[in-house]
Amino acid sequence: MMYIFASYIKVFLLLAGFRDVNAGSYVVLLIVVLVAAIGYIAFLHKQNREKQDHIEHKNREIKQLTHEFKLLSILANDTDNLVAVTNAEGQIDFANRVFREIFGISQKADISSKKIFDLPGFEKISEVFLESVRKKANTQTEFFISAGKGHRFWLQITISHAIFQAEHKVMVIATNINDLKFAEEEISQQSEELKVQSEQLEAMNTELEYVNQVTTDSINYAQRIQYAILPRPDDYLKHINDSFVMFRPRNIVSGDFYWYGEIDGKAFFVEADCTGHGVPGALMATIGNTLLNEIVVSEKHSNPAIILKELDRKIKSVLRQEAGLPDQQDGMDMALAQFDYETRELSVSIANQFVFFRHKGALIELEGSLFAIGGSDLHTKKPDFDLYRFKVEPGDVLYLFSDGYRDQFKEEEKEKMMYHRFKNIMQELGEHDFLKQKALLEKRFDEWKGRSRQIDDVLVWGIQF
């Protein structure tokens, strides 16, 4: 064997150009061959090591993917969602527990021969599925299915894509959104009901606006009538020196009114505060105005106390008020002054009010009877009204007023003006020329009231003799 190997070496040396082949040449060649063999062996070892590393890396990847797949399978089986993994054609590779239960597929059955959109109800996603695969784009859709065994669902379908071992895989996750859909339907139904109610309310509002406009127009017309029957300054200024009227209805028409009449050289001045305000008060004011014309102008009664008694009787008759019934209290408070412009004698009678009379520079308070005009008699006594008489001096002033001025609340406070503040204002009026008194009276009222709501009709009539 060694002889053959030596012969090969000798031939190789001769071919290589060595003419004198001796022992040294054999050694050199042997070394070269050994080095080449070692290099080749090293190359093969390296190549083998790289293959082993590659195999180990792939094994680790497969192990990791297997672990992740197991975790995914566990999670997919524990979820309440329907989960399936398919290939790009829809062939099912995996279906979780819920998916199988819904479609009546045994947990151990092989379903690799089924396509997902061949299952009952899932045919609806075929177009969406294939379009998603074609574009390799994640997709979400909703549809209703009936999967047998009474299973009826609104499902939200999410289709996503992954590459697993160079193969296109598609994950289909279906979430039961029945509760959401039922809530949407309920909200939609409620919205529809609200829409109908809104339309009904709008129609009612339109009707109410029309009724309100008609009512307001009627009340505005009533206001023109009420102002028409109130006395004009030309009627009474011919017998007195001067006068002012502060008249502010709380609403469009007023339950406060003032009246003037004259007979046989006597002038009559009346201020009245009727039960209520607005339309009810205005109706009472109309009744009072009509009866005063009847009693004074037609029947020629001139004594203020008698006029009040007669007015009380007629009010009760007109309103059919029966004695002892507390709910029949419609009527009015009133101050009535009679001025004999020939003798310059002033006679005043008052029903459930008081008045101020500035006589010779002094402010005098005239208290009225506790009896009002009209209303059911809760007293055993018949109404009786006191009579005040004065000899009028030039410059004397009589102030007639309802309770609306002094009952006004102060802005942002639960406090009325009340008697003492009102009297102070009346005292203050005496410090000013009569022509300026109305402006001062209105200024003090507006300062007190501010932006608060007016709570009652306001009437103040100043009469200067």
From TrEMBL:
<dbReference type="GO" id="GO:0016791">
    <property type="term" value="F:phosphatase activity"/>
</dbReference>
<dbReference type="InterPro" id="IPR035965">
    <property type="entry name" value="PAS-like_dom_sf"/>
</dbReference>
<dbReference type="Pfam" id="PF07228">
    <property type="entry name" value="SpoIIE"/>
</dbReference>
<dbReference type="InterPro" id="IPR036457">
    <property type="entry name" value="PPM-type-like_dom_sf"/>
</dbReference>
<feature type="coiled-coil region">
    <location>
        <begin position="173"/>
        <end position="207"/>
    </location>
</feature>
<keyword id="KW-0175">Coiled coil</keyword>
<feature type="domain" description="PPM-type phosphatase">
    <location>
        <begin position="241"/>
        <end position="465"/>
    </location>
</feature>
<keyword id="KW-1133">Transmembrane helix</keyword>
<dbReference type="InterPro" id="IPR000014">
    <property type="entry name" value="PAS"/>
</dbReference>
<feature type="transmembrane region" description="Helical">
    <location>
        <begin position="23"/>
        <end position="43"/>
    </location>
</feature>
<dbReference type="InterPro" id="IPR001932">
    <property type="entry name" value="PPM-type_phosphatase-like_dom"/>
</dbReference>
<dbReference type="Pfam" id="PF13426">
    <property type="entry name" value="PAS_9"/>
</dbReference>
<dbReference type="InterPro" id="IPR052016">
    <property type="entry name" value="Bact_Sigma-Reg"/>
</dbReference>
<keyword id="KW-0378">Hydrolase</keyword>
<keyword id="KW-0812">Transmembrane</keyword>
<keyword id="KW-0472">Membrane</keyword>
<protein>
    <submittedName>
        <fullName>PAS domain S-box protein</fullName>
    </submittedName>
</protein>
